[in-house]
Write a structure and sequence with these properties.
The complex is a heterodimer of chains A (260) and B (275).
Chain A (H helix, E strand, L loop, with lengths): L2 H24 L10 H4 L2 H14 L1 H33 L1 H16 L5 H9 L3 H25 L3 H9 L4 H19 L1 H18 L5 H10 L3 H29 L10
Chain B lengths: L7 E13 L5 E13 L3 E5 L6 H9 L6 E6 L2 E2 L7 E4 L11 H10 L5 H14 L15 H13 L5 E5 L7 H17 L3 E6 L2 H7 L2 E5 L7 E6 L8 H4 L3 H31 L1
Parallel strand pairs in B: 3-8, 3-9, 6-7, 7-8
Antiparallel strand pairs in B: 1-2, 1-4, 4-5, 9-10
The chains are: A mainly alpha (260), B alpha/beta (275).
Chain lengths: 260, 275
């Protein structure tokens, strides 16, 4: 399929889905409306809601809050994950002692932590950041741990024979290997940072995209819920594109950069 | 057997190497290996698959400690890694996240050489292995033979007194191996380092080396033969194989080696049957 045909087909899917949605919510079929507008709204209302948000400018504040929370969660979670991942990989005894607790914590559905974090950190951005951190941390931690553990012994021996000391091995062998594993999971960890922020906002906040959706839901404003969902997916796609750009730059040495 | 005038670069004195297996039995890989490589001498070790040739090389490199016996490097007992040796591995050992030129320059950079100077020398080495135009390629963009060339430059830029090579051209196709063999001889003849070259290819061993050492089939392999190769240098790997002397030597060594190869096969198939 050529690029033009592909694009055409992709656009057609959106057009058809939107048209059917609009039709079933406004035009009665056999005297009955199949999708009651109260529960399903309709594309035109949703679209006008989005336009209203952007033209009045209220959305920017919420977007900025969610973005800021996601960035903080990603950075803090990644730094902690890298440090602990390195530490555990280089100290197998420490790793062995903490192993059951790491597994236990990771098995916990993170949403249940939200109330605790709200109590500890309040309803501001930090409770959302904390939720995102618990998600990002484990992904980065497991990947860095794996990356340090699975350095090829030949490459390591080569480094030693070339005269590297422990510090130089760390810098030239372990570190790049761990980073490459971390970057290969960049899409997942960035995605989870956003999930943490939005879920946190949904469960209790004063601003952010999750808060916007939760507010709309509270007054049965279905158009508002859908509008919030669309803005959120556009937001995530933009972030994902930015990640792809970063990844292309950082992993040039890799045989194939994984396409998202 | 060793020329008295030249110092001994590597001396294995009754080196025995043993490993503890998972079921806590002891597996003896090499038993009482006695081998001396003079400064400037090119020695090839040939033996059947799994006879502990690489083990012996790792002992000389200081990556493995012998269970008994000793290793002397230039008459000093070896403790820890062998700092006088450069090691060319069988498997890919380049740093995949560094470009060809960075891979070569690293050997100087970790010794504290300024980066500009290291890169300059690395470029010169890449040129001498015929990869001057490939400096900015990452290893995965290079062919197997090209990666071996970068590996050779990476080792040689540090100017080690001893060169340890573990079937370095093993994964390459027959033609590329011969080209690499000639390149190796050309670089080696510039400043004859002591070379310990492990291979399973007897022809390659005779064509390259001053001496060919044969190991018996494992476990507990021993050195069972030592031949001097009197073919004139400089040699050309393509030409030397047509030499009459080459054929005679090959027949003579193969007579001994063949038996060990057969034993090696029989044992490995037995081990396979038992497991």
């Amino acid at each position: 399929m050529s690029r033009v045909t592909l694009l055409f087909c992709q656009v057609m899917v959106a057009v058809i889905v939107l048209a059917l949605w609009q039709a079933f919510t406004t035009v009665p079929v056999f005297g009955r409306i199949l999708l009651p507008p109260f529960f399903f709204s309709n594309p035109i209302d949703v679209f006008s809601q989005i336009v209203k948000w952007f033209s009045s400018g209220v959305i920017w504040k919420h977007l900025a809050i969610t973005l800021w929370e996601s960035i903080l969660a990603f950075v803090i979670g990644s730094v902690a994950g890298i440090l602990v991942g390195f530490w555990f990989a280089r100290q197998p005894r420490v790793a062995a002692v903490f192993d059951p607790y790491v597994k236990m914590t990771n098995a916990l559905p993170r949403v249940v932590l939200a109330p605790i974090f709200a109590l500890w950190f309040g309803l501001g951005i930090w409770s959302k950041v904390a939720l995102g951190v618990t998600l990002v941390f484990f992904i980065v931690f497991f990947n860095v741990y794996q990356g340090v553990k699975e350095v090829s012994t030949t490459v390591l021996d080569n480094g030693r024979m070339l005269g590297m000391n422990e510090r130089q091995l760390m810098r030239h062998v372990y570190w790049p290997s761990a980073l490459s594993w971390m970057f290969s999971s960049l899409h997942t960890s960035v995605g989870f940072a956003v999930v943490g922020a939005v879920v946190g906002e949904y469960l209790g906040a004063a601003a952010g995209l999750g808060y916007l959706i939760q507010q709309a839901e509270g007054v049965f404003d279905v158009a508002g819920v859908f509008a919030g969902m669309f803005v959120l997916s556009a937001f995530v796609i933009l972030i994902d594109m930015a990640v792809t750009l970063v990844e292309r730059r950082l992993l040039v040495w890799r045989p194939t950069v994984r396409e998202s | 057997m060793v020329d008295k005038a030249k110092p001994t670069a590597v001396a294995l004195e009754d080196a025995t190497v043993a490993f503890r297996l998972a079921d806590s039995r002891i597996f003896t890989a090499v038993e009482k290996a006695r081998l001396a490589v003079a400064h400037g001498e090119f020695v090839a070790i040939v033996g059947p698959t799994g006879c502990g040739k690489s083990t012996l090389l790792n002992v000389a490199a200081g990556l493995l400690k012998p269970a008994a016996g000793s290793v002397r490097i230039f008459d000093q007992p070896l403790a820890g890694l062998n700092r006088d040796a450069g090691y060319l591995f069988q498997a890919d050992a380049l740093f995949p996240w560094k470009t060809a030129i960075d891979n070569v320059a690293i050997g100087l950079e970790i010794k504290g050489a300024p980066r500009g100077k290291a890169l300059e020398q690395a470029q010169a080495w890449l040129t001498s292995v015929g990869l001057g135009a490939f400096a900015n390629r990452y290893p995965h963009m290079l062919s197997g033979g090209q990666r071996k060339r970068v590996g050779l430059a990476q080792v040689l830029i540090r100017d080690p007194k001893i060169l340890l090579m573990d079937e370095p051209f093993g994964p390459l196709d027959a033609q590329t191996r011969q080209v690499m063999g000639n390149l190796l001889l050309e670089l080696w003849s510039a400043d004859r380092k002591a070379v310990l070259f492990v291979t399973h290819d007897l022809e390659e061993a005779i064509a390259l080396a001053d001496r060919v050492v044969i190991m018996s089939a494992g476990p507990g392999s021993r050195i069972i033969g030592d031949w001097r190769v009197e073919l004139p240098r400089p040699r050309d790997i393509f030409e030397v194989r047509l030499d009459k002397q080459f054929h005679e030597l090959h027949r003579e060594i193969w007579g001994v080696l063949k038996e060990e190869v057969m034993k090696g096969y029989a044992q490995s198939s037995q081990r396979g049957g038992a497991a």
